[in-house]
Design brief:
Elements: H1 2-21, H2 23-42, H3 47-83, H4 96-121, H5 127-158, H6 163-171, H7 175-198, H8 203-230
Length: 231
Amino acid sequence: MPATNRTEESPWRAGWESARLLIWPGLVLQSTALALVLAYYFLPAAHGAFAQIAVWREAGGFFFSAIATSLCGGVLPFLYLRWNPATRATHPWSQIAFFALFWAWKGVEVDLLYHGLSWVFGQEAIFLTVAAKVAVDQLVYNPLYATPLSSFLYAWKNAGYNFAPVIADVRAGRWYARKVIPAQLAVWWVWAPTVSCVYALPSVLQIPLFNVVLCFWSLLFASITSRQNRE
């Protein structure tokens, strides 16, 4: 009985540890997102910059989403991990293709999600609309699809692009509890407040704000999955 209880509690302890380590980085990311939203609505001097970003976003469409997200979520975080002596050994140059392509795809995917939520719930930045979008994003899209798939693919990357150990880990049982729940708790801590800010902006500015936060989140997620791989 005691051994079983320890096993059952471990994902939550691991999730709490991940969230605990992200308390201050998460607050910084959330404060940055909130500051940009407040600047959009209450700082006239910033309107020109937001208007220019909106022009680039509309002109680029899904191509903008793919390139910007690949750069902010993939290339820049990878270069930091590669040049940081503490993480250089676990991030060889061969991984840059994974980071770039994975996050380019995620950029298009998130853009489609934002378009779909705007189509279903509307584009007004009112409480009920924002709350509905956040609920679907954080309670459906992330725990049922985005976090499990990202955890699986990062584990594949950490295993040297070898599916065998990843599949073996999944077959060992309780993979979702062991691998996904700790990451998902960290996702909720960082992103639930952040996407509230994202959905408070007009649709054309949501992907740019997502990318500002993503540049730092990608580093944190890589750290979480690397620690899981070591354990």
